[in-house]
Amino acid sequence: MKTILVLNGPNLNMLGLRQPDVYGHDTLADVEALCRKTGDESGLEIEFQQTNHEGKMIDWILHARNRVAGIVINPGAWTHTSVAIHDALIAAEVPVIEVHISNVHRREHFRHHSYVSLVAKAVLAGLGTHGYQLAIEHLAHLNR
Length: 144
Ligand code: DQA
Hints:
Layout: E1 3-8, H1 20-23, H2 28-42, E2 45-50, H3 54-63, E3 70-74, H4 83-92, E4 96-100, E5 122-125, H5 130-142
Parallel strand pairs: 1-2, 1-3, 3-4, 4-5
Helix pairs in contact: 2-5, 3-4
Bound molecules: 1,3,4-trihydroxy-5-OXO-cyclohexanecarboxylic acid.
1,3,4-trihydroxy-5-OXO-cyclohexanecarboxylic acid binds at residues 11, 74, 76-77, 79, 100-102, 104, 111.
C-alpha cells in the first residue's frame, strides 16, 4: 500500500483552542481521524505528524524521499518564512500539496507569500479541515 505523509507545523497542536473564529473547532486529533478515514477509503496508508521544531519537520520531509507517494503539508507560519522547508521539499522529490485551514490571502499581508507554494503541486486554502481530505483524495487520484 502506498503511503501519504501528512505534516503539520507550529501551533497546529493548538487547533480547536487557538483562534476558533479563524481555524474552527476541530482539534488536531479530529484532523488526524479525518485523514486516516480518507486514507482508508482511498487505499492509502497515512502517516500523520505535527511539530513545533523546524529541524524535525525538515528531517521528516527528507525521510519521505523514495519512500512515500505524496506529502500533504500545512506548514503553519513556516509557510511564510522557511527557505529551509522549501529546499527540503525540493530534495524530497515527491508531489506536495500545501494546505491552509484559513484563507491566508484574506488575512495579513505577511501571510500572502508562501515559500512552499513555489514547490507545491497545488494549494488549498480557506476550506477548513476539509482541505486535508481533498488533498489526500487528489494524491489518491494521481496514484491510481
Ligand atoms: C495556517 C495559516 C498560517 O498563516 C498560520 O501561521 C498558521 C495556520 C492555516 O492553516 O490557515 O499557523 O497555515
